[in-house]
């Protein structure tokens, strides 16, 4: 009986009436959605907003004052930073930083005739006023640059190494506080076809060129296969810790 069913199933597949099913990814998260999930579960995430127009971004940034902003196109593709917009500036990628310095002119009505010069310039109150005023100008200047970047990205087509020549439309952008990067690492949880289960992939050489690292330096990519019924949480934690120690 079983051999007969096997022969029948093979004939059906060969005839094309019933094709084998292919796995389809049903869950796709934008970067801002991933950040929100990480934040909800206690991970440290810098402040950010999401906007679909310049006006919306300007409204949300009224109380969002930073010296530098990162403006990031929200498309489901990698390589955004090195991508380019169709019909856009040749030096503008899908990820850009808004920063700059504004010239500050301060008019002070303080009389220095009766005050020694060194004492006048070391005045704490004057120094605080200068720094505060300078900071405000920098924030306003950088906000305008960030808003200009929003205008250049939203509604445009971004082409990256993963989108093909047609590219993908940018409907939203993420604007976040720019932070200084001391170290970049890579961590992902994938579905492994060989074991039919999840696998953790870690690399100390993380960043936007992780594909290049995997091709040129495969020894810097560590993999931990998760067997649900074989090991406990402690063993997985120990394995991942070893990956981190080997990468130092």
UniProtKB/TrEMBL annotation:
It comes from the Eukaryota. Pfam families: ATP-grasp_2 (PF08442). One of its GO terms (molecular function) is succinate-CoA ligase (GDP-forming) activity. SUPFAM superfamilies: Glutathione synthetase ATP-binding domain-like. GO terms for cellular component: mitochondrion; succinate-CoA ligase complex. One of its GO terms (biological process) is succinyl-CoA metabolic process. InterPro entries: ATP-grasp_succ-CoA_synth-type (IPR013650), ATP_grasp_subdomain_1 (IPR013815). Residues 28-104, 141-226 form the ATP-grasp fold succinyl-CoA synthetase-type domain. This is ATP-grasp fold succinyl-CoA synthetase-type domain-containing protein. It comes from Ascaris lumbricoides (Giant roundworm).
């Amino acid at each position: 009986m079983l051999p007969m069913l096997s022969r029948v199933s093979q004939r059906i597949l060969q005839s094309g009436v019933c094709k084998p099913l292919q796995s389809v990814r049903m869950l796709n998260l934008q970067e801002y959605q991933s950040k929100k999930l990480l934040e909800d579960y206690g991970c440290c995430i810098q402040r950010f907003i999401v906007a679909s127009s310049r006006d919306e971004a300007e409204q949300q940034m009224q109380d969002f004052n930073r010296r530098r902003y990162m403006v990031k196109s929200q498309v489901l593709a990698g390589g955004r930073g090195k991508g380019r917009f169709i019909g856009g500036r040749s030096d503008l990628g899908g990820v850009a930083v808004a920063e700059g310095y504004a010239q500050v002119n301060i008019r002070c009505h303080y009389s220095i005739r009766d005050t020694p010069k060194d004492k006048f310039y070391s005045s704490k109150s004057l120094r605080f006023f200068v720094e505060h005023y300078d900071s405000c100008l920098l924030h306003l200047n950088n906000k305008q640059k960030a808003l200009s970047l929003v205008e250049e990205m939203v509604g445009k087509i971004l082409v990256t190494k993963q989108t093909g020549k047609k590219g993908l439309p940018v409907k939203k952008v993420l604007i976040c506080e720019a932070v200084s990067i001391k170290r970049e690492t890579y961590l992902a949880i994938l579905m492994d076809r060989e074991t039919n289960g999840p696998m953790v992939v870690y690399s100390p050489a993380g960043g936007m060129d992780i594909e290049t690292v995997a091709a040129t330096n495969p020894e810097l990519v560590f993999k931990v296969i998760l067997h649900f019924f074989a090991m406990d949480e402690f063993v997985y934690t120990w394995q991942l810790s070893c990956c981190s120690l080997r990468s130092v």
